[in-house]
């Protein structure tokens, strides 16, 4: 039986490069981004696969773990080995790919931290490189939530971890399946069960699209901009409805004026 105390360490295998950066106080850029890509009435999306894969359901004994770790290490062509501890837990590496469509928030450059901002916290919007990935050295006790928090800490992202979710990606029968991991699932256990083949199992960090927006996860500047966008969408819908009825009324009046009394 494993201790539930969180325990993990991390190593990072690649450097980062920034995409487009903008100060969060630049409302026009912020609004332009979210107006172009966000709607408060999203289109219906094809549901993702929520069914757990076979290796997600496995419960392994210590001898089973030792055997599977031995088989796993025999299949890899790098030094990213797994190691079994005396207590039956084990450590190893997982690779997480970033698939973020929106910018993340990071602290402002150090040269700006000395400015007086009248109590307003300044942050910078940062676009992570497309298809960036990171290797993490974790324990079999490390949860999906801890993996997300570790990734955000590495990039000094100050956004609420609840904005993000870790997904299991697998390719089966020429189709790609995505399953969102629950906060308490253990990614390294999934990695061991599936083996090192990235097609059978890989991990992806995405926005946490739950269908219900967790507004408490957003900052005050973000919420104010959302309200402006919402008002703009509402005004546009009202305008379209008014125009539709005005056009119908005009056509009715034209029909009445052109008709001959009986």
The helix-and-strand class reads alpha+beta
- What is the molecular shape? elongated
Helix tally equals 5
Q: CATH homologous superfamily of the largest domain - what is it?
A: Phosphatidylinositol 3-kinase Catalytic Subunit, Chain A, domain 1
Rounded to the nearest angstrom, the distance between the terminal CA atoms is 92 Å
> Approximately what portion of the residues adopt beta-strand conformation?
15-25%
Structural features, described:
The chain is of the alpha+beta class and 262 residues long. It folds into 2 domains: 21-218, Ubiquitin-like (UB roll) (Roll), CATH 3.10.20.90; 219-262. Helices cover 32% and strands 18% of the residues. The protein has helices at residues 27-37, 62-75, 144-154, 187-194, 220-258; strands at 21-23, 83-84, 90-98, 104-106, 124-126, 133-139, 164-172, 175-180, 202-207. The strands form 2 sheets. Strands 2, 3, 6, 7, 8 and 9 form a 6-stranded mixed sheet that branches. A 3-stranded antiparallel sheet has the order 1-5-4, with no helix packed on it. The longest helix is centred in the C-terminal third of the chain and has 39 residues, at 220-258. Pfam families: Nore1-SARAH, RA.
Would you kindly provide a brief summary of this structure?
Its main location: cytoplasm. This protein has 262 residues and is an alpha+beta fold.
């Amino acid at each position: 039986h494993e201790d539930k105390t969180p325990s993990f360490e991390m190593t990072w295998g690649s450097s980062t490069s920034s995409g487009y950066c903008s100060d969060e106080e630049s409302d026009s850029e912020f609004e332009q981004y979210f107006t172009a890509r966000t709607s408060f009435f999203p289109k219906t999306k094809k549901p993702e696969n929520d069914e757990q894969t076979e290796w997600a359901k496995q419960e392994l004994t210590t001898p089973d773990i030792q055997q599977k770790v031995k088989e796993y290490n025999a299949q890899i062509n790098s030094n990213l080995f797994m190691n079994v501890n005396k207590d039956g837990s084990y450590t190893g590496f997982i690779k997480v790919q970033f698939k973020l469509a929106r910018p993340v928030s990071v602290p402002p450059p150090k040269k700006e931290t000395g400015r007086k901002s009248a109590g307003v916290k300044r942050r910078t919007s940062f676009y992570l490189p497309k298809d960036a990935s990171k290797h993490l050295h974790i324990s079999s006790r490390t949860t999906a939530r801890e993996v997300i928090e570790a990734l955000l800490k590495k990039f000094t992202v100050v956004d609420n971890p609840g904005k993000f979710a870790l997904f299991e990606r697998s390719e089966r029968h020429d189709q790609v399946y995505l399953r969102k991991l629950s906060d308490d699932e253990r990614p390294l256990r999934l990695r061991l069960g599936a083996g090192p083949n990235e097609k059978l199992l890989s991990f992806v960090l995405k926005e946490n699209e739950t269908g219900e927006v967790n507004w408490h996860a957003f900052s005050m500047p973000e919420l104010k901009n959302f309200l402006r966008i919402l008002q703009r969408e509402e005004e546009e819908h009202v305008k379209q409805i008014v125009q539709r009825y005005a056009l119908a009324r005009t056509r009715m009046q034209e029909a009445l004026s052109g008709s001959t009394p009986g």
